[in-house]
Structure formats: C-alpha cells, structure tokens
Amino acid sequence: MIYASRYLRVTEPLMTGPDVEYVQQRLSELGFYDGPVNGVYDMETEGAVRNFQENFGLLVDGIVGPDTYNAIGLSPEDEFDVPTEGYSIYIDTINFSLTLNQNGNIVKSYPIAVGAPSTPTPLGDWRIIQKTLNPGGAFGSRWMKINVPWGGYGIHGTDNPSSIGTAASHGCVRMYNEDVNELYDIVPLGTPVRITGTAFTGRILSVGVEPGEDIAEVQRILQILGYYRGSITGEYDSPTEQAVMDFQRDFGLPADGIVGPKTYEVLFRQRDITLGDTRP
C-alpha cells in the first residue's frame, strides 16, 4: 500500500497546520517561497509548490503528496547532534500504545490512535525533528513531526478523543491532549521513535487475482469518484478493470487496467480531494 499522509492543497476553508508550516519553511530555504511561514496553505503557497514541481520535473498540480515531499527533502537543521537524555519512544500500532523509555527503562505508556488501513502509520525508525505548541484543530494542543521523507507525519493531540484506541488517522499518531502535553514537555528534538506493527502492503491488482478487501477498497474509491457503478464484491472482474482503465486514462496514467503503486497513489489523492478529507 502507498504511504501517503494528508495531501496538502488549497481547500475551503484553507488547510492549516504544522505540516504546512514545515513545507513553507523548506520551500523558503530552497528559494521557492518568500511569503509568511504561517502554516496556511493559500494560493501563494500553492504557487511556490507549482514552481518547485516544475523545476524538479514533477507533476505540476500544486498538491504536496509523496513525490513532492520526497523532492523537498529534509532540512540540514533536521540533523540533530544534541543529547536526548536517553529518551526514546516506542509505538505499537497493533496495540495502539506509545511507550516512553529512558535508558532502556519504561517511563510511561499512553493510548493512541494510528493510521487507518488505507493510510497507515509508517513503520520504521525515525526521529522527532519539529515541535509546535498549540497547533489547534485536528492537531490538538501539541505537534511533534517525525522525519519520514515522503509525508507530513507526526505525533500530536486531537480534537476527536473518541478516536483514541482505533485505526482512524491519515497516518499520524494521535494522543489525548493531556498526554501529548506531558510527552512534549519531556522529549527533546532528536528523540528516536520506533514504530512497529503490521505493514499494509497493497497487491498488484488485475483480472484473475484472488478476491480481497483491497479490491473492495478500490471499488469503493472508484464508486466515490463516479467510475464504478457495480456492487462492492471484492472481485477484480471486467467492470472493475474497465473502471480502472477509465480512471487511469483521465489522470494521465497508462490505461492498462492494473492497479499498481502509482494508480493507488492517484486513487487515494482523488478520494481525499473529492471527500474534502483534510484530517492528519
């Protein structure tokens, strides 16, 4: 499955957040943006993104997705060589828990929410590279960005506490606000973050593959986008293949009827845009 945090783009109301602020800061450092670094994804920010995309041979759509995140890269200032006082964070996406350790000893564990199956939390070893007080909205009371190169992922609070203990986010790790406040005050920049769990890997889908929930999810997205009018069966049949080909043709992809990584990515992006999904 393609890892993709929320796609940054111009919306109504405008998208805001520390992930937007980080992209603005990087574009400013790279010489593509001279506007305010205020965390608001407005037309000026979109114009800078388009200019960057054109210069780096990317699809010029003004949307910050995995390819643009990768090209923007991480700031040299994100390479921390500072004492972390022995702190480390361990995130278990299966059991919805975040554990703070110091020098190998457990300090405290917290309940969390993690990414939904179609937008999973990225597994691996990362570090905290940005901390923001009171980002507000869906980010809650605190934000701590981790250095995943292909998206704006972080550990943050929430305005939806009922989601804690579930797989509900766009890949970020959500905490109760009182918990993230406590964690934020303890861990410094550079703190290691290990994320473990089950990797949701997408099959390459085509006619003849075994039925499955991944096919059903593609059918649901194609139905939302108006390309598929059949029942959600989880079977990759001829109507599903035709819907995929029509979608691929409309979005400049090879119209081969095969759902691979690039088709997955564009499907998820267009689903988010159509549904107005801006959650982190």
Please provide a written account of the structure.
By secondary structure, the chain is an alpha/beta fold. The protein has 3 domains: 18-78, Muramoyl-pentapeptide Carboxypeptidase, domain 1, CATH 1.10.101.10; 87-196, L,D-transpeptidase catalytic domain-like (Beta Barrel); 213-259, no CATH class. It is built from 7 helices and 10 strands. It has helices at residues 18-29, 43-55, 66-72, 177-186, 213-224, 238-250, 261-275, and strands spanning 87-92, 97-102, 105-111, 114-115, 124-133, 142-146, 154-156, 167-169, 173-174, 192-196. The strands form 2 sheets. An 8-stranded mixed sheet has the order 3-2-1-10-5-6-7-9, with helices on both faces. Strands 4-8 form a two-stranded parallel ribbon. Strand 5 and strand 6 (142-146) form a beta hairpin. Helix 5 crosses helix 7 (261-275). The two termini are 18 Å apart. The mean pLDDT is 94.
**Gross morphology:** globular
Number of helices: 7
Average predicted confidence as pLDDT: 94
The largest pleated sheet is described as: 8 strands, mixed
Q: Helix content range of the residues, please? A: 25-40%
CATH class (first level) name of the largest domain: Mainly Beta
Say which CATH homologous superfamily of the largest domain is assigned: L,D-transpeptidase catalytic domain-like
β-strand percent reads: 15-25%
How many strands? 10
Radius of gyration: 19 Å
Question: What is the correct CATH architecture of the largest domain?
Answer: Beta Barrel
Spatial ordering of strands, largest sheet? 3-2-1-10-5-6-7-9
User: What is the fold named in CATH at topology level of the largest domain?
Assistant: L,D-transpeptidase catalytic domain-like
What's the number of domains? 3
N/C terminus separation: 18 Å
Instruction: Give the uncertain stretches in residue-range form.
Output: none
